[in-house]
Amino acid sequence: MNTAVSAACDLLCFSHLRWDFVFQRPQHLLSRCAKERRVFYVEEPIFDAPTPRLAIDEHDGVHVVVPHLPQGDDPQVSATLRHLLDVLLQRFAIVDYAAWFYTPMAVPWTSHLRPRATVYDCMDELSAFANAPPRLQEFERALLRRAALVLTGGQSLFEAKRAAHHNVHAFPSSVDVEHFARARRIAEPPPDQASIPHPRLGFFGVIDERMDIGLIDGVAALRPDWHVVLIGPTVKIDPAALPRRPNLHYLGQKTYAQLPEYLAGWDVALIPFARNEATRFISPTKTPEYLAAGVPVVSTSIRDVVRPYGQNGLARIADSPPDFVAACAAAMAEDPVERRRVADAFLSHTSWDGTWTRINQLLDAVMRPSSEPARTA
């Protein structure tokens, strides 16, 4: 099937992530997809309405759909979501489409769909996250039976999933190099970072159970003259449990557009993730983003950072506070010109545009005529 034919096909996506949360893989891929076809991004429901309704807005060319529901038990919620989904299909005349899943939890209320093809973009091992739904793995098995194409957000996740499906492809985190390279040219600091002294060690991302809070606290304790800047929302953990020191600075969530402004003022960029089940298969998008900004990277021994970044000398790896401090000191002593040269050569082979082009080719390959029913769980 050629691209012109598949481009006419809509894409119906089901995700556990809010579109206006941290700008990451779904936003990068689907905003590019929306340049070629209509994209409907259906989020998990919000239980705040006396009667069921859909809130629909357009962001980055994508129709973002949020179901608002009254409280109810699981069968009732699934039935209501199925009805609202049918309303969406009718309202926008969505007839010829592909189904794209980030969350297996949408399986119970989408089994009646008849897409040309079903895609499972498995960006994380969600079953390992804190408070994972008890039936998530069951629904993932059903989704794998339904899917014609499975994508993974990293090499480790690919190795974990490839035996479960006949058509699995690894697409590790990519980067918009031009966007983050702006950090190399920005001289004016953002107001809430301007007064923080150097050296500055920075992190951006979600602050949750994946963060090694003890490591952050240990580094700050060992080097009170260093300042650690943490940017991002705090979720699934109590903010009161976060360490508090004069040299720890929590600046809250920033937009994707603002991130280069903060990176421009960092001496080291951090990936201080814990080594636990929730991080076993992650492939942090921030790794190539930090590198594109020209900032040295220090990370804990996350497999998809060790391979390829640590092995290629693009990131220093350390796990204990003393070793992490030593790695940060060594990173600040590097020759920045040579470091950026090596990073730029590595990043020249990756981009979100290129990643979407390759994924779109795989999507074309599995598209079926709309008259042929999709497999159901």
SSE layout and pairings?
Layout: H1 3-7, E1 10-15, H2 25-33, E2 39-43, E3 53-59, E4 62-68, H3 74-91, E5 97-101, E6 118-122, H4 136-146, E7 149-152, H5 155-161, E8 168-170, H6 177-181, H7 191-194, E9 200-204, H8 213-222, E10 227-231, E11 248-252, H9 259-263, E12 268-271, H10 286-292, E13 297-299, H11 303-310, E14 316-317, H12 321-332, H13 336-347, H14 352-366
Parallel strand pairs: 1-2, 1-5, 2-4, 5-6, 6-7, 7-8, 9-10, 9-12, 10-11, 12-13, 13-14
Antiparallel strand pairs: 3-4
Overview of the structural elements:
This protein has 377 residues and is an alpha/beta fold. It folds into two domains: 3-174 and 352-366, Rossmann fold (3-Layer(aba) Sandwich), CATH 3.40.50; 177-347, Rossmann fold. The chain has 14 helices and 14 strands. Helix 2 packs across helix 14 (352-366) and helix 8 (213-222) crosses helix 12 (321-332). The model is unreliable at 1-5 and 370-377 (pLDDT under 50).
Keywords:
single chain; 377 residues; alpha/beta; Rossmann fold; 2 domains; eight-stranded mixed beta sheet; six-stranded parallel beta sheet; 14 helices; 14 strands; 34% helix; globular; disordered N terminus; disordered C terminus
Shape, per Cα inertia axes: globular
Task: Compute the number of structural domains.
Answer: 2
**Class of the largest domain, according to the CATH hierarchy?**
Alpha Beta
Helical residues, percent:
25-40%
Biggest sheet strand line-up: 3-4-2-1-5-6-7-8
First CA to last CA: what distance? 25 Å
Main pleated sheet: 8 strands, mixed
